[in-house]
């Protein structure tokens, strides 16, 4: 890749994964109705972590400490996996009423897996440390009251 | 009420989010990658090349220098100049007489037997620095570089600089503690019989080198003219408390070397905001011959360094306002008082004295306010006026 018209060359002109490259992405959704008034649903999502460019080392150049980065998008953040479970309880099924109501009781992220939302690196006391931040890193129960009209 | 719910939701999201240590898979080899810094000097100054190694992110050690390497400057006209090893991974030569029509490269053989070469580079001589100027800005001083190439073919520049300043301790010291054989303080006495101050700890100099990548280019201009701010000294800084000097050193770069430095600057000095550029890999002009896929960091070219030194005196920056945060305490010349108030301080001058000249009380201050060698050196630099 010595073509002067090529502009800025990324990753030495070789292929690299795009930022949104997720080769494996599977979602399972299951609903089961026990009766007219009670049903459960289960939702499971798995996807490969998206690619990132990681710092892999430090060096000293031009009077300061510099970070050495790996090839573009050569690493991936940890895989994403989440399971949600919910139970749906309907009220009476009279046809003529102002609103049809139901309750939903469930748990978001049933397994409590700490899925990384972002991975970042900060310099602390001269050492570069990596952290992953997860939002909803534990199982979250919820109760909904649904009104249909 | 609306805000209260919002706050609760935000607080909940905060509580439920969590931060964990993330250890990236490390693929930097044990010995690290070779880092080559410097340029082949075609001018009067000697060539100096520094070899070091990259270290892992979680290693706390400072720089690892590469020792016992053999470096030669090779010309395509069969010139060959060996470099001599100095301390701290630095290799240097005498001033070289290079043929301006030839191309030169660096040939490195490291202690572990691997060989590295840089690409052949033409001899670039770049224009001299027109001037180094400065202006009062925002209460401080901003220093500018001015240069131009009448032939319009340099275009890419890099600067390094050393800042030196002369400064004085807040207090002079005519006194010292006297101690007994067990090194226990017994009182104070004059340092010299004629009661003069100790001048070796009063006047000092400090020098720091530039730690940023300072590059500039006139590629987008019709003529090759550079006027760039390089240094900012904030107001009241000690640098301008008496006399300040900066030695600016300019080299001409090729476009490839400029892009390399620009990328390194982007990767390491301009991250940390929301719309950061993606860090990109650095591609220098040095290659490992033994293992072509090995990463080598550095860009070595042939250039002629031009220098210019300026001085700024405190009288040129009126109302600079430097004031050291120093105070003295008055202490009775009694062993118990000295033990209580004087330990950890250095005595400065006598307070009350008896009619016979003996010291009744004296003043003392923190060591940093009396002994300037704690933050500098008392050896006058050779270029100092």
Layout of helices and strands:
The complex is a heterodimer of chains A (149) and B (385).
Chain A: E1 25-35, E2 38-47, E3 51-52, E4 55-61, E5 64-69, E6 75-76, E7 80-90, E8 100-108, E9 118-124, E10 127-134, E11 140-148
Antiparallel strand pairs in A: 1-2, 2-7, 3-6, 4-5, 7-8, 8-11, 9-10
Chain B: H1 2-16, E1 18-21, E2 34-41, E3 48-53, E4 64-65, E5 70-75, E6 80-82, E7 84-85, E8 90-92, E9 103-109, E10 115-118, E11 121-124, E12 129-137, E13 140-148, E14 156-168, E15 175-179, E16 185-190, E17 203-209, E18 214-217, E19 225-233, E20 243-252, H2 255-269, E21 286-288, E22 296-297, E23 302-303, E24 306-313, E25 328-332, H3 335-342, E26 346-350, E27 361-365, H4 367-370
Task: Summarize the entry for a quick read.
Chain A contains no helices and 11 strands. Chain A is mainly beta and 149 residues long.
* Unreliable sequence segments of chain A: none
Number of strand elements of chain B: 27
Tell me the number of helical segments of chain A per DSSP (H or I, 4 or more residues long): 0
Strand content of chain B: 35-45%
